[in-house]
Design a protein that fits this description.
alpha+beta; 146 residues; 2 domains; single chain; two-stranded antiparallel ribbon; 4 strands
Length: 146
């Protein structure tokens, strides 16, 4: 470990800016961050051994964590919602559509989080609407089983 740290210290600073600030090698920075992330590692001790301010190393650790978090979020695929939008007609449109709803035969299938399945075949618009409203009022948890 001591030999690795001496090699890392030698490779870490690659130059200096006009104001005297150091320019650090990205690969060596990553190695130092990985060393600091090891169980039982002391950030301040490792920073001191490399002649770097511990606050600078802490900043590199935060930046590394943010990059890691962004890469994880970029790899995550959005999960499709199990819910389907159901249009609700205003009362005036419902009364006009009631005559037509008596002749329309619809099927409703619903699967609740607790595994209960409901299938309603050959129902009119009014019956489907009543069932949807009733299902919306039911308290259902995934832990409930039948």
């Amino acid at each position: 470990m001591a030999g690795d740290l001496e090699d890392l210290k030698r490779r870490l600073v690659v130059g200096h800016k006009r104001g005297g600030r150091c320019i650090y090698d990205e690969a060596a920075k990553s190695e130092l961050v990985e060393m600091c992330r090891q169980p039982g590692a002391s950030v301040s001790l490792l920073a001191r051994e490399c002649s770097i301010n511990a606050n600078q190393v802490s900043r590199w650790l935060r930046e590394h964590a943010q990059k890691h978090k962004r890469s994880l979020l970029a790899r995550c695929t959005p999960v499709a919602s199990p819910f389907v939008a159901v249009p609700v007609l205003p009362p005036a449109a419902v009364s006009a559509a009631q005559d037509a709803s008596e002749t329309v035969s619809m099927t409703l299938q619903a699967r609740l989080p607790n595994g209960v399945s409901i299938e309603l075949c050959g129902a009119g618009l009014r019956q489907i609407e009543d069932v949807i409203q009733a299902l919306g009022r039911v308290a259902c948890s995934a832990s409930t089983t039948i």
